[in-house]
């Protein structure tokens, strides 16, 4: 298990500058890798996440309990295939494209439980909850069914709280220290799917 990429992004109009009427719809979901296996740049991690990273909607993203969004690299093959089929254009998403800060290898939603601790390099994090997709994810992916697919297939990733600040570099190993192991991220995702108030996912 290891950290493949660290990504960060800035708040910007979600539709780009060319759609003036939609400038009020902003997001920092567009993340770009600043440390990866081809560029081993140390990155500062603080209690609020990756230094230089921003969030547009602090009610849904960011803060102490959503400081870092971690996402399994294993899911990228699915998204590339789905988006290539739906958009009829070749798609090869780069790490950070799902909006994640940490792109990781070797851990999936079924393996991670709320309350587990993750030791990444010399830093310590804890698993807080899954990522809940919304319409902004659909816009970013260019496919109106992207959020629905993420939820239905359980490809959510999860948020981390930072317990130890410091410097982190891509390539760092990951060790899981189990918590109470009552609810996995996969189980939390299933519970969310079974709720009746998810209509906004595919609007």
Task: Put the structure in a nutshell.
This protein has 203 residues and is α+β, with helices and mostly antiparallel strands. The chain contains 4 helices and 13 strands. The strands form 3 sheets. The protein has an 8-stranded mixed β-sheet. Strands 6-5-12 form a 3-stranded antiparallel β-sheet, with no helix packed on it.
Could you tell me the radius of gyration in angstroms?
Answer: 16 Å
CATH architecture: Beta Barrel
Class in CATH? Answer: Mainly Beta
Structural class: alpha+beta
Element pattern in H and E? EEEEEEEHEEEHHEEEH
The name of the CATH superfamily reads: PK beta-barrel domain-like
- Strand proportion: 25-35%
User: How far apart lie the N and C ends?
Assistant: 36 Å
What is the approximate shape? globular
Number of helices, where a helix is a run of at least 4 consecutive DSSP H or I residues: 4
Strand order of the largest sheet: 4-1-8-7-11-10-9-13
CATH topology: M1 Pyruvate Kinase, Domain 3
Mean pLDDT: 90
């Amino acid at each position: 298990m290891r950290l493949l990429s660290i990504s960060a992004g800035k708040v910007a109009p979600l539709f780009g500058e060319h759609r003036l009427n939609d400038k009020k719809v902003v997001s920092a979901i567009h993340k770009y890798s600043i440390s990866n296996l081809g560029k081993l740049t140390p990155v500062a991690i603080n209690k609020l996440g990756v230094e230089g990273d921003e969030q547009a909607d602090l009610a849904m993203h960011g803060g102490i309990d959503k400081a870092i969004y971690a996402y399994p690299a294993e899911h990228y093959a699915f998204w590339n295939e789905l988006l290539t089929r739906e958009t009829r254009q070749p798609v090869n998403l780069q790490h950070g494209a799902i909006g994640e800060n940490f792109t990781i290898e070797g851990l999936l939603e079924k393996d991670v439980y709320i309350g587990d601790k993750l030791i990444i390099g010399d830093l310590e994090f804890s698993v807080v909850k899954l990522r809940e997709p919304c319409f902004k994810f659909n816009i970013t992916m260019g496919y109106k069914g992207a959020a629905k697919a993420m939820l239905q297939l359980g490809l959510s990733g999860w948020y981390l709280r930072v317990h130890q600040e410091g410097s982190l570099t891509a390539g760092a190993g990951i060790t899981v220290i189990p918590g109470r192991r009552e609810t996995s991220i996969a189980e939390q995702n299933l519970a969310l799917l079974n709720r009746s108030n998810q209509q906004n996912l595919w609007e």
